[in-house]
Amino acid sequence: MSLPPEKASELKQLIHQQLSKMDVHGRIREILAETIREELAPDQQQLSTEDLIKALRRRGIIDDVMKELNFVTDNVDQEIPHSPKQPVCFTDKQSTLLKKTNIDPTRRYLYLQVLGGKAFLEHLQEPEPLPGQICSTFTLCLHFRNQRFRSKPVPCACEPDFHDGFLLEVHRENLGDGTRMADSTTMLSISDPIHMVLIKTDIFGETTLVASYFLEWRSVLGSENGVTNLTVELMGVGTESKVSVGILNIKLEMYPSLSQTLSQEVVNTQLALERQKTAEKERLFLVYAKQWWREYLQIRPSHNSRLVKIFAQDENGINRPVCSYVKPLRAGRLLDTPRQAARFVNVLGYERAPVIGGGGKQEQWCTLLAFLCRNKGDCEDHANLLCSLLLGYGLEAFVCVGTKAKGVPHAWVMTCGTDGTITFWESLTGHRYIHKSNNPDEPPVAEQPKPLYPYRTIGCVFNHQMFLGNCQPSDSVETCVFDLNDESKWKPMSEEAIKSVCAPGATTSLPPFPPLCASTIDASVTSNEIEMQLRLLVSEHRKDLGLTTVWEDQLSYLLSPALASYEFERTTSISAGNEEFQDAIRRAVPDGHTFKGFPIHFVYRNARRAFATCLRSPFCEEIICCRGDQVRLAVRVRVFTYPESACAVWIMFACECVS
Question: Within 442-601, where are the H helices?
């Protein structure tokens, strides 16, 4: 096992500190003296090392030391075939434990260290936080070749104190024969960048995307001793993508050390060739897209007003083909069904891209890592993720671009069944709608079913392989026929042209898709914490009104099945368990008493914010401020966790009082 020298010395120091803390040396001296006194014959002058170890083991000293020096490995929920070796991550210099220890000495690693930041001028006047004070923080998230890492949060400052190391595995099975370690030439052909996303979290837990950067790491292959230092300038996102937000000092080092480094000229030539090849592919696709658009307008001039979205800007202001934002994504064992995937996407927060001043909506389609790390995004981000997950489950899924009521642009997901059934999936709510086309040529007397979905018009549909523009006389969803093979209704783009710029590895400018991460939230602990906070808030609120508060613990417990049933229904569209809940409540509430309950759902864990929202409901306020004889209050919180630490929080307030 190869460790960086500073980590090896740090590990030795930690072990030494622990041994001193346990006074192991003193205990060994005592046992040594006792063993010599009891076990050595008068004519025997020395004690062997083996005898001493036996004595130490007999008295439990070695077992005690090993218990104190245990190494903890994280449980990462990934499918075994995709990730035979989990990445190593050193993140906390103060920690007495290494987070992960499964380093394979036969594989090649890139050790990336973040050695502080500077010139984060927006935080120039930021006061230094006092010990224990809650403050805004920066967190750096990384993705490289199906491995994800997250730094420890550091207080926001002009010179943030980033000091983290990440061990990135470069080697993989299909590089050569799988038995040899990847050499410099082999690694030079690996064009995957290191995607770095900087997130700011404020004191209320709200996240903001600060920067998104693709680090070209292969310069280390041409540096002396396989070590290089870089200064990375991070640019803002969206409308601020041309403005510098700060600088990170980064050190890259290969482990084990390279036996033979490449010349910097060779590395630069390879990178220049890749950029040239990518630029040519993108140029040819742009020429083709322009020709396709001219042909589309020739069908009907009114097509010019339809929402046919061929390119979209990412968080860095770079135009990418929309098909590159979607790719079949497998969730491993983190999500079991397509509907559970829809629920997961639904509980990720919704936030429109920020815009300075007026002028309508700011366009920003986020890369998947930026969306997941921020834990919220616009409707297009949700639709792209849901479509990718449904494709991963083997469904024929497409992102639809069109409008809702009042002409508001919107994106949602559509699946096409083998029997021709068209299903719309609303990624912001998790709702599903079966589409039945209304025939505009039917006589007016024929009763047309009113659509339940909120969509009004549709301009195009796309996934990772196909792009089709709606060329039917009307772009109304209600009358639209979704026979995607009929070129008189849907004008397709060449699948070969899409593949040339959107297939995995087709160009070096495409950001690779990261895997999903398991939740780090303990559902039971978080549920209890929020419930205790809400009890305190209710008691304080009633005290301000001159009311006393009596909590009924048994009634609170009886509310749990209802909350579980609500979440089950959101995930499966099936209602279950309501009869048992109603029967239990009838038994618990005495004759002559009235029971009132108010369930509500949130996708955040801020108890104070949730309580303020609840009080805006007259019905909930009536329960919380209930007056009368023998008033008993109850509250139950149930947190349901999903990947990426997203969660659905169900809360029910209830009371019983004399009728």
Answer: 495-502, 523-544, 553-558, 560-572, 578-588
